[in-house]
Here is the input.
Amino acid sequence: MGREEKIDIDVFKVVSRAIAHSDSLEAMTAYLSQLLVAALGIKGCSIFALNPETGELEIIGTFGLRVSFLNKGPVLSKKSIARTLKGTPVVVSDVEKARVLQYPDQTRAEGIRAIISLPVVLYGQVIGALRLYHREVWKISDRDLDSLLVLAEMIGLAMSFTRLAQGLHAVREAVGGVHMDWLISRDEG
Amino acid sequence: MGTQKLLLPYNFTDRDRKAMEFTASAFAPQGDVEVTLFHAYLSLPEVQVQDREVTERLRGGMGYLQAKISELESDFQNIRDELIDRGFPPARVRAVFRPRKKEVLDAILDLHHRERFNLIVVSRRPGRIGRFFAGSLHTKLIDALTNVTICVVS
Here is the structure.
């Protein structure tokens, strides 16, 4: 693949609508992964959340990768394309020439030839990663990389929002189970 | 007691495999348990944008998405076969592989409301942060259902 532009405004509209119209993070990330795979003609896509205590990247949504590859073992941020976790996008145009992979043998066995890894950032903190996997050598254009970085920022906002929405829902459920007599003092009357 | 109806949601994680192995070891010897192995994948996106070229490109990509889902369905049938190999009679293991529009929870509840299972064996979502962001399926199931035994495999 050359450095042709693959992401134009219409592709961007389609994928950003997937973010805006989803009310669950699990569905949003799965849907977004499907759309990116279809729109870019790539092999697969995964969206991770970073566990700051263990340094592990936990999959939130994914598409296109085989079960055996997904279950290969923990993806550790310090060993797997580590610069992403410093907030920098990492382009592995050809995995055959790369030394930044945690599971190089499994990556080759999966038929992956190139990986683009983008940080998912919220308020300046890296909270996850968006990874795109291609079956061919991939020299991504600067413009497409910029577009994907913006998309990763939107994912960060969506992660924050859905978590907040879930928290509010949990509070509503808890309060809904409390009888009014327990909330209002009888002395008030 | 009549036949017990057991639902086993399966999403191909290591913990789902543990849940499958637990189901086989605990319930296959009983002989009166009917298992529904269940996977609900997200429906393929419906794409319609003004630019016909983009729409066509995305539609072209849909063929690949469909092929990947077929591959997943084949893997899913292998899990059903494994349950049979581990002792369940073939007539007592059903594999339900279907699209969904919303969360997995909604798909499970929808199936349960139609079929009324006695028992659900569900795995705990791996990863604390994943649960923090995406929520916990087993907690939501416990909150949503009554008169069902729910086994959580962690």
